[in-house]
Amino acid sequence: MRAVLEDRSYMRADPHRSRWSAWLILIIAVTVCFALQQIAMVYFGRAGWIYNYLGLSTAGLKQGFVWQLLTFQFLHVGLWHLLGNLIGLWCFGRFVEERLGTKTFLQVYFFSGVCGGLLQAGLGWAAPNYFGATTFGASAGVCGLISAFAMMEPEGEIRLWGIVPIKAKHLLWIGGGIALFFTLVPSGGGYAHAAHLGGFIAGLAYMRWDASRPVISWNPLQGRRRKRELVQAAAKITRWRGAREEVATELPPEEFISKEVDPILDKISAHGIHSLTPRERQILEAARAKMRKS
Prior knowledge:
It is built from 15 helices and four strands. The protein has helices spanning 2-6, 22-43, 47-54, 58-62, 68-71, 79-100, 102-126, 128-131, 139-152, 168-184, 193-208, 224-237, 244-248, 253-271, 278-293, and strands spanning 157-160, 164-167, 209-210, 215-216. It has two domains: 22-215, Up-down Bundle (Rhomboid-like fold), CATH 1.20.1540.10; 223-293, no CATH class.
């Protein structure tokens, strides 16, 4: 049974899984950078240097400061700005990394951040009066994580400010809609709406592309690698007593996997983990239990 299951890539261990969670490392790194930023500005008067060389600006990119597309994601304009992005990293980063693995999580996050920065800087070149300000913050990367989360768990419930319940797909549409509106109708206020919009779009685009192969996959959850992650997530939700042997011995191993497990994984891909029946949850747990025993 173990050999049969391990033949499927989605049941193997993730080679890119880190002993340290990348989302936690990012939270620490962003916090440390913010602290250093404040120290430099208060005690060394280096605000101008930080803005000119580390913050993202159209002028800086014109001078070849391409590193700004990365460094701006570690700087913030204030404590509330920082806390908002740290909460986003904590809420969505944990799930995305656990589901997709550390490598893909980092790719989604920084790809979204860079794309958001490029859109903001590009509009800064076209309309400097509205988008020309120096940009700071991890918001674009967090927006990309929201997109990734919503595509994997569209029916998943999120509680805004810990109170207001909202489905992930609705949060994506509302957040993306606000970013689009204020990108088309700039209002100032110090918000980089274009960067947010770029982050949302980049996250969606990345999830449409199957990161395990250099090809386009228009259903991001159909690949075997995605299915393995879905099994891992489902097993954390389901722990059904007395189901393992009863289900696993009904069919020969290969037939059990092809006829019982694969259709369930396809269902998770299409409708999410919450769509499973108690019987289907038992089957997934039975498959994982057999693999551990073999």
